[in-house]
Amino acid sequence: MPLQVTTRPNNLTTSEIRFLFISKNAGKITLDQLLDEAAEAHSTVTRADLAASIHILIEVTHKLLYEGFRIEFPFVDLYLKASGSAETSETPFTPKRKSTDHTFTLHALVHKREQHISAGAVQWLRRDFNRFRFTPSVRKAEIWEDSTIYIEGKNLEFDKTDSRDGICLMTGTGDDKIVPVRYNLVKNTEIIALLPPLEPGTYSLYITNRGNSVLQHIQVNGTTPAGKAEPSPVHEQLVSDDTPPRQ
Question: What is the model's pTM?
């Protein structure tokens, strides 16, 4: 299977770019599997010979890295690099002390030529955007006395540029659709919005995120702002591709 390329929403709110390309590997090849592939592709070299050569190469690489050398491989350069902070130019470097941030880190620098060759030769497949992983999940929903609705859950942060996304309430008859006057807070785990005054009764609360809707019934006891709405004992969540009807 080739490299799979798809998109995900850009979570950087200050950016005008809505989606970013990402990729998923076809799988992971272990060193043993790599040796099997190499031995099968070259009948003149045994797997044992390849394994012995790799073992020697790893030993020598470790030795030279520890001596401070930068090792050049066909695809990357490997090297160790010091890092940490110091108060003065005379501060001693103490990587073995846990109380400091002094350490050595292993770096790999990809060769530009290999990067260019790989980008042109890679086998890849475009996958459709998986919107179902953005299906909302409601853990708690309340309507307060001042007509504020509070929702807690997962995958609640919807696309504000899409008029089909957001929350709405519908009466039992389905004739009236009630949308927030304004949204005070929209996060992945919380939504706070101001609703118009509500009549007492049972309402269907829809939350839609990128075409995926969740439904929860909520009981309003008394007109707002006189009373407080409590979640109905009947709690239902239905995943649907269809957003609630719009007037």
Answer: 0.50
